[in-house]
TrEMBL record:
<dbReference type="GO" id="GO:0008757">
    <property type="term" value="F:S-adenosylmethionine-dependent methyltransferase activity"/>
</dbReference>
<dbReference type="InterPro" id="IPR050210">
    <property type="entry name" value="tRNA_Adenine-N(6)_MTase"/>
</dbReference>
<dbReference type="Pfam" id="PF05175">
    <property type="entry name" value="MTS"/>
</dbReference>
<keyword id="KW-0808">Transferase</keyword>
<keyword id="KW-0489">Methyltransferase</keyword>
<dbReference type="InterPro" id="IPR007848">
    <property type="entry name" value="Small_mtfrase_dom"/>
</dbReference>
<dbReference type="GO" id="GO:0003676">
    <property type="term" value="F:nucleic acid binding"/>
</dbReference>
<protein>
    <submittedName>
        <fullName>tRNA1(Val) (Adenine(37)-N6)-methyltransferase</fullName>
    </submittedName>
</protein>
<dbReference type="GO" id="GO:0008170">
    <property type="term" value="F:N-methyltransferase activity"/>
</dbReference>
<dbReference type="InterPro" id="IPR029063">
    <property type="entry name" value="SAM-dependent_MTases_sf"/>
</dbReference>
<feature type="domain" description="Methyltransferase small">
    <location>
        <begin position="32"/>
        <end position="171"/>
    </location>
</feature>
<dbReference type="InterPro" id="IPR002052">
    <property type="entry name" value="DNA_methylase_N6_adenine_CS"/>
</dbReference>
<dbReference type="GO" id="GO:0032259">
    <property type="term" value="P:methylation"/>
</dbReference>
Length: 233
């Protein structure tokens, strides 16, 4: 890949340097919020569905030195970047990148063996809003290759009984998400609304759900990303 088509971005807090496309799909705050929300334990085997350039997988691996991550990405250029980013950051022994469709995962991503699945899936149905002209970005933002039901089904196949799924999703589709999770017997356990500013409607939803668990949901205090205008902090 031509270096002129890439940028190198530094996540100083985690000591990561990540290559990503100069044009097309680039990771955003959503991915970092997901990484912050995910609760992992030493020894966890984690799957990152739709890893993009690998940002969530690599942040989690850096913060949790005793986990392993299998990062799945269907788009060849993004999968190659995720693999290179793992190598450049010295995490390729614990982060493996698999170029595959989550609807038909290969044997190297075995069913029923993962303690935790994380995902920052496309939020928009194909007919909702203007389709991004860049094909790579369109697939990352619109449900072109996988819809919500397909993602949840893939997560259930991968999780061991009692394993957990953590997602970031559009707040306006919260009912769709919670319905899909319960329908797949992945019960929502923690939920947090994310607001862009004080008094603004929630834009995102962070959810942790558990395979084959009972009904009990903790709604956490909302996360407000920017302080009030008169707040000196």
């Amino acid at each position: 890949m031509d270096a002129r088509e890439l940028t190198e971005d530094h996540l100083a807090a985690d000591g990561l340097r990540l290559l990503q496309p100069r044009r097309g799909y680039r990771f955003s705050l959503d991915a970092l919020l997901l990484a912050d929300f995910a609760r992992l334990r030493p020894g966890d085997r984690v799957a990152d569905l739709g890893t993009g350039c690998g940002v969530v997988a690599l942040v989690l691996a850096r913060r949790h030195p005793r986990i392993t991550v299998t990062a799945v990405e269907i788009q060849p250029r993004l999968a190659a970047l995720a693999r290179e980013n793992a190598r450049r950051n010295g995490l390729d022994r614990r982060v493996s990148v698999v170029e595959a469709d989550m609807a038909g995962l290969p044997a190297e991503v075995p069913a029923g063996t993962f303690d935790h699945v994380v995902a920052n899936p496309p939020f928009r149905p194909p007919g909702a809003g203007r389709l991004c002209p860049d094909p790579e970005e369109a697939q990352a933002r619109h449900e072109i290759r996988v819809d919500l039901g397909g993602l949840v089904a893939a997560a259930r196949r991968l999780l061991r009984p009692g394993g957990r799924l953590t997602l970031v999703y559009a707040a306006e589709r919260a009912v769709d998400l919670l319905t899909a999770l319960r329908g797949a017997r992945i019960e929502p356990k923690r939920l947090r609304w994310v607001h862009p500013g004080p008094g603004a409607p929630a834009r995102l939803l962070l959810v942790e759900a558990c395979r084959d668990a009972g009904v009990e949901l903790a709604v956490l205090p909302p996360l407000v990303l920017s302080p009030p205008e008169n707040d000196p902090g």
